[in-house]
Amino acid sequence: MAENTVEETRRGRPLLEVDDVAVHFGGVKAVDGITLELRAGHIYGVLGPNGSGKSTLLGAMTRLTPMTRGSFVFEGNDYTRRPARTVHHMGIARTFQTVRLLDDRSVRDNILLGQDTLAKAGRKDADARVDEVMERVGVTAVARMRPDELSYGMQRRVEFARAIIGRPRLLLLDEPTAGMNSSEREEIGALMKQLLDEGITQFIVEHDVQMMVDTCDYLFAMNFGKLIAEGTPAAVVKHPAVQEAYLGKGAGTHA
Amino acid sequence: MQDLLNAATLGSIYLLFTLGMALVWGTIGILNFAHGATFMFSAFIGHVVTKHTELPFLAVIAIAVAVGAVMSTLTQLLAFQPILKRSKNQHAAEMRILIGGIGVAAIPLAIAQRYTRSSPFGFRSSYDAEVYQFLGLRITTTALIIIVTGLAIGIALTVWLRNSRQGLALRAIGVDAETSAGMGVNRPALALGTMAVAGGLAGLAGALLTFHLGAIAPETGDTLLIKAFAIVVLGGLGSMLGTVLGAYILAAAETFVIFMNWGTWVNAVSFGLIFLILLVRPQGLLGRKEVRRT
Amino acid sequence: MSDWYSMNVVLIQTTLTTLLLALSIQVPLRYGVFSFAGVGAFGIGGYTGAMAMVHGEWSTWPAVLLGTLVAGVCTFLLGLVVQRLTGLYMGMATIAFTLIISVLAVNGGDWTGGAMGLYGAIGEITTMHIVLAVLIVVAFLAWTEYGRRGRKVDTVREDPELANALGIDVNGYRRLSFLISGLIGGLAGAITTLLRSTITPSEVNFHLVILALTAIVVGGARSWVGALIGAVIFVWLPTFLSFVQEWEKVAYGFIVAVAAIYLPNGVLGVVKDLWHKSRTRDERARVAVGLQEKS
Fold first, then answer.
1. What are residue C151's phi and psi, to 5 degrees?
2. CATH code of residue A38
3. What are phi and psi of B193, to 5 degrees?
């Protein structure tokens, strides 16, 4: 995928426009004026050392984190002022940096939650759909078990399944492979590409550079709350500002 | 004027009772619902002991303080610590600690009620309160002791929390449990110590109030508990100075209500205050700005 | 059977009214709202019903209905005011609300009968009526616990932020929990009062909060079944164990403390865990083997 040119990756209908978004906590500018555009049919990645504001940006995009300024337009609808819960209804789903599942509900119930608040059409054939999703992420065998009885990697798969069961048009993934072993990482990477073929655009926050280069076809790089580079993975990784953020003066902040 | 003096005495009693609760809640984050029962039971043990042998004032106080400290330590060891260990998150722990505290509180209350058949009890002591008169004001030695002790301990705790090493460690726990653990603060030990101090204060308050009134009822602790909550909320969680202020403000307000002959409304003062403060200024008068709202 | 029934009619009625009261506290807990306003609603419902009968000369069921509705509305309004408070603060604000109701009752003069309470509200309520009322309430609650409604409620309680991200109207659910709690509490109060024909301010106190809480904590806070288990245990235990009668309150305190420490989900939680374990034995064995193979 890294062979794509910038022109190719800018094809597709506009999905999400992020305009000059800032999130300040008191004097700390966690996100400071980010502008970017996502088009349908791509896997986007945000690269950046820990504390560069990636996850905060994701929080703002889902309206869970109150923002200082800026706007979000999804498929032509400005949702900047709408409550967080409407984001899910619009067709944007997300996963979290840490696993957040209901420990006293079965895996199946946890996954079903991803479509429980959708309008009737979105919940059609829920039983068949949940079986299909479980099969794809590989949790069918543990459907009746509870999340706290599963390994961390399995828990992440359940979260993944919960995010995709409602057929979102944009999927936001916050470090989707954190805590996974390399074979699990590959599986998740393959699954992401499969989902892309089904029309689910993805936006991944991650600090594992290799994983991002392998999976994404367009990268953004952040540091200190600002966008420092964007483009094809190969170009972004070689960008001097990115090199510096990871290896240069900013190396101390990289975990 | 006499009313002001009465308010000062009442406020000091509230203060002695509340200080322990506020200390524990403001630092290690435990709202100990058994604090009222500890208060009452310390005085009750004093009552049982003095039934057999007449004791001097200080001996009764010492017994009550010791009983309070032991009860409070046991509550922490046997109930709160296991709950904290078994809880997934702060929210779940808070609720279970509250319920566990309610359960623990019911045990000494029931024992005391059984023993006294729910009637008020006092001490048999060689101590005899004298009444002083000056400028037309009447004050007993007990009231004087209560006012002086209350203020002294209130100020001492404020200063200690602000300036000492342990005080700093405790406040650090109150602000951010995780970071303070990383800084090498021994949380369980500090928590146990804090609970013991709080229990001792509850015992002291119980003995002094019983000396002051002549007798208290087993249920006295429950009533005081809600008032103490009002005081902490009013003063601001985590601020000892706020607790001192809150205690006297509540006492003054209640004395005023009685002065105006609205006696049956007196309990509504504390309940109303809780409500008003939580809505208008949730961090209290002197509280640190904290996430009390979602 | 009918002998047994007539001997125990008071206990049966008490079990049912205790169940209603416990449910009024359990509903907000199930929605993650630490509210004891249900006990205040019990007082409002009881007093409103009794006043309608004594002063307004209403008949039994309109009075019960009025008590239920007034309590529901008052508690809902309280919810609007306090809905943003968290955890303990919410708990204490709602306890304060409950205690204010009792102070109001003391100071209500002829309307509420003052500290002596209100007498002579002789309702025509039979055990059958109470059973019917309980069935309606339980059917409704069972409906809210089932399927996707149940999943959503669980998420609101366990992780409000996640609930928001999943598109659930968390604040709406919280407000709803106040309304339901108020209606059930009011119903419990009105029925209890008109059954006994009297209500006094000292009944609406902290101990009623503890009774309701105890039943839920021991039975289980996650389902109406838990409240039923708790109500049955606490109403019937003293009749079976004579030593408990002697030390009743000590035993209750002990049981509550132990339940809070070791059984956070009550008796029902233990039963559910065992059921889950036996049902998924094969799956768990497979996962354990799988993990071993990998390592």
1. -60, -40
2. 3.40.50.300
3. -60, -45
Min Cα–Cα distance to chain C from B271, Å:
5
Q: Do A104 and C265 touch (CB under 8 A)?
A: yes
Report d(CA A233, CA A212) in Å as an integer: 8
Q: Are residues A82 and A182 in the same domain?
A: yes
pLDDT (tens digit per residue) in B113-168: 888 888 888 888 777 777 777 777 777 888 888 888 888 998 888 888 887 777 77
Judged by CB atoms closer than 8 Å, whether chains meet at C86 and B86 is answered as: no
Retrieve residue A225's tokens.
């709350």
| C271 touching chain A per CB within 8 A | no
Any chains having at least 3 CB pairs less than 8 A from chain C are: A, B
Best C74, C82, C85, C89 member to test B by mutation, with max B CBs in 10 Å, is: C89
Question: What is the maximum span of chain A, computed from C-alpha positions, in angstroms?
Answer: 54
pLDDT for res A6? 60
Domain boundaries C2-294, corresponding CATH code: 1.10.3470
**Nearest chain B CA: its distance from C174 CA (Å):** 12
Per CB-CB distance under 8 Å, the chain B contacts of C96 are: 226, 230, 270-272, 274-275
Residues 219 through 238 of chain B touching chain C, CB cutoff 8 Å: 222, 226, 229-230, 233
Neighbours of C48 (CB within 10 A): 23
Per-domain boundaries in chain B: 2-219
Contacts of C247 in chain B (CB under 8 A): 110, 114
Euclidean distance between the first and final Cα of chain C, in Å? 62
Q: Is the pLDDT of residue C16 over 60?
A: yes
Q: How large is the ipTM?
A: 0.86
Domains of chain C, by residue range, sit at 2-294
Confidence of residue A10 (pLDDT cuts 50, 70, 90): low
Query: Is C270 within 8 Å of chain A by CB?
Result: no
Shared-domain flag, residues A61 and A113: no
User: What pLDDT does B293 receive?
Assistant: 37
pTM (two decimals): 0.87
As a three-state string, the secondary structure of chain B is CHHHHHHHHHHHHHHHHHHHHHHHHHHHCCCCCCHHHHHHHHHHHHHHHHHHCCECHHHHHHHHHHHHHHHHHHHHHHHHHHHHHHCCCHHHHHHHHHHHHHHHHHHHHHHHHHHHCCCCECCCECCCCCEEEECCEEEEHHHHHHHHHHHHHHHHHHHHHHHCHHHHHHHHHHHCHHHHHHCCCCHHHHHHHHHHHHHHHHHHHHHHHHHHHCCECCCHHHHHHHHHHHHHHHHCCCCHHHHHHHHHHHHHHHHHHHHCCCHHHHHHHHHHHHHHHHHHCCCCCCCCCCCCEC
CA distance C129 to C132: 5
Distance of CA B89 to the CA centre of its chain: 27
